[in-house]
Amino acid sequence: MMRAVAELTRKENIRTVVSLNPVMIDGTGMCGGCRVLIDNKSEFACVDGPEFDAHKVNFEVLVQRNGMYRDAEQKSLADYQLAQQAHSTRNEEHCAIAQRSER
């Protein structure tokens, strides 16, 4: 959506600022996870932003970069959900054992 707004406002020469969400790994720019091209110069959303001139952002590279972590994020979420299910099952088993021992 930011890209579409930037293109609309560029035609009308309307100053537009976008706020880019940095991938916060270290918050110093050292990891490069939030690198963005602004006027073909590398900047980092965590230290140089998160606000940038929308007309200077290379959205093509940004979209590609944001997609880099999608598979890892989905795997991490699935692993977390499995761990939560296992934890819940263990709690239910402990409760059942405790109820039987109280009788």
Short note summarizing the structure:
The chain is an alpha+beta fold and 103 residues long. The protein has helices at 2-11, 45-48, 59-67, 70-102; strands spanning 17-19, 35-38, 41-44, 51-53.
Walkthrough of the structure:
With 103 residues, the chain is α+β, with helices and mostly antiparallel strands. Helices cover 54% and strands 14% of the residues. The protein is built from four helices and four strands. The termini are far apart.
Task: Describe the secondary-structure layout.
Blueprint: H1 2-11, E1 17-19, E2 35-38, E3 41-44, H2 45-48, E4 51-53, H3 59-67, H4 70-102
Antiparallel strand pairs: 1-4, 2-3
Q: What order do the SSEs take from the amino end to the carboxyl end, as H and E?
A: HEEEHEHH
Q: Tell me about the largest β-sheet.
A: 2 strands, antiparallel
Are there runs of 5+ residues with pLDDT below 50, and where? none
User: Roughly what percent helix?
Assistant: 40-55%
| Count of extended strands | 4
Would you tell me the structural class of the helices and strands?
A: alpha+beta
> How many H/I helical runs?
4
Spatial strand order of the main sheet: 1-4
Gross geometry: elongated
Mean pLDDT: 86
Strand percent estimate: 5-15%
Distance between the termini: 61 Å
Radius of gyration: 22 Å
Keywords:
elongated, 4 helices, two-stranded antiparallel ribbon, 103 residues, alpha+beta
